Amino acid sequence: MELAPALAEHLRSLRRPGKAILISDFLMAAASYQQGLNLLRAFNLDIAVIQVLTRQEVDPPFSNGSLRVVDSETNAEIGFQWDAAARQDYQAKLAQHNSQIRSFCHQSGIHYSLYVTDRELDDFIFATPARHWAFQIDHGIFKSRGFVRPFGTAAPDNSIPD
Amino acid sequence: MYGLLALPLLIIPYLIRRKPKRVIFSSLLLLTEPGTRAGGRPLGKLRLPLIFFLQLLLLTLLILALGEPVFSLRASNIAIVLDNSASMQTLENQQTRFALAQEKARELLADLGVTGKVDLYLTAPRLEKVRGATFEPAEAAGVLAALTPFDLADAPIDYQSSLSQMAKERKYDRVFLYH
């Protein structure tokens, strides 16, 4: 499903401006996520974007040779010759894709952070500026899980860990 | 050496492509953009792994080894020393030893290149060059056929030293002794 229509359904019930956290892998065309984020901006929301990728998405564990790759959401299928060069090509494209998202967010006043799931969640949360989160940080789930830290104590780390 | 013709067969297993493995992935976005290479086509670009070339080399060496190659330098200037003493008239398998020696010498001349030079020697009554001349292989074969054994025993000759000296002095590539 496209991002913008999915967001529009929820935004219909929105009565006043507030904070929006959009968590997605953002493995979609630039036009698609830009349309969705612009929709959130149109509602005058303070937006934080968390791009979540698995290690498999950062470094696909495909064995070399001919593959039939199936899209887990659309079931679309393509033939692909996977080797070291293809891996390098994929990772270069992913880096460029993520860079475009980050750049768009920066230009649009959207807080962006990238979380690769093999990273410790605590580390990610503490390294992400507190203004990204939806709540005053001394309340809510973070406090209950012991994640509370003073504002802005850690520098953001949005690079893909090796 | 005909085994080398079978070498191209080695490529057949690499031409038979395995059915591509099917994997599920979260998005094809970064796999389908221009620049990615579609695979799984029956006549797609053949990609030969390094192991193929190693196998090819190994198979080539194996076939060459089975061919039992020898390094030989074809002699072009030879001497044939034929024992024509009386003892060569002894019959062996209904042929005289002399006739058998002539036959062996003819086989040798047949293997010699057309540019070869041949000196013929007889041992009786003394070690002597036939006609005092050097022959071409075809001509030597003709002369050889006309030779006959002598009814005398050959002179006592130390073949080893005599032939070694002959080879050295006349610069023969090889000296063949039939007796």
Protein model, in words:
- The complex is a heterodimer of chains A (162) and B (179).
- With 162 residues, chain A is an alpha/beta fold.
- Chain A has six helices and five strands.
- In chain A, the strands form two sheets. A three-stranded parallel sheet of chain A has the order 1-2-5. In chain A, strands 3-4 form a two-stranded antiparallel sheet.
- Chain A starts with a helix and ends in an 18-residue tail after the last helix.
- Chain B is α/β, with parallel strands linked by helices.
- Chain B has two domains: 2-66, no CATH class; 77-178, von Willebrand factor, type A domain (Rossmann fold, 3-Layer(aba) Sandwich).
- Chain B contains five helices and seven strands; from the N terminus they run H-E-H-E-E-E-H-E-E-H-H-E.
- Chain B has helices spanning 12-15, 50-66, 97-111, 137-146, 159-170; strands spanning 21-25, 77-82, 91-92, 95-96, 117-122, 128-129, 174-178.
- The longest helix of chain B has 17 residues, at 50-66.
- Residues 33-43 of chain B have low confidence and may be disordered.
- Classes of the chains: A alpha/beta (162), B alpha/beta (179).
- At the A-B interface, strand 3, strand 4 and helix 4 of A face strand 1 of B.
- Strand 3 (65-71) of chain A pairs parallel with strand 1 of chain B.
CATH architecture of the largest domain in chain B: 3-Layer(aba) Sandwich
Q: In angstroms, what separates the terminal alpha carbons of chain A?
A: 31 Å
- Strands of the widest sheet of chain A, in order across it, are 1-2-5
Averaged pLDDT of chain A, please? Answer: 81
Count of DSSP helices of chain B?
Answer: 5
Write the H/E string of chain A, N to C. HEHEHEEHEHH
Query: Total strand count of chain A, please?
Result: 5
- Report low-confidence residues of chain A grouped into runs of 5 or more: 135-156
**Which secondary-structure class do the elements of chain B indicate?**
alpha/beta
Fraction of residues in β-strands of chain A: 15-25%
**What is the CA-based Rg of chain B, rounded?**
32 Å
CATH fold-type name of the largest domain in chain B: Rossmann fold
Globally, the shape of chain B reads rod-shaped
Task: Classify the secondary structure makeup of chain A into a structural class.
Answer: alpha/beta
Distance linking N and C termini of chain B: 36 Å
* Percent range for β-strand residues of chain B: 15-25%
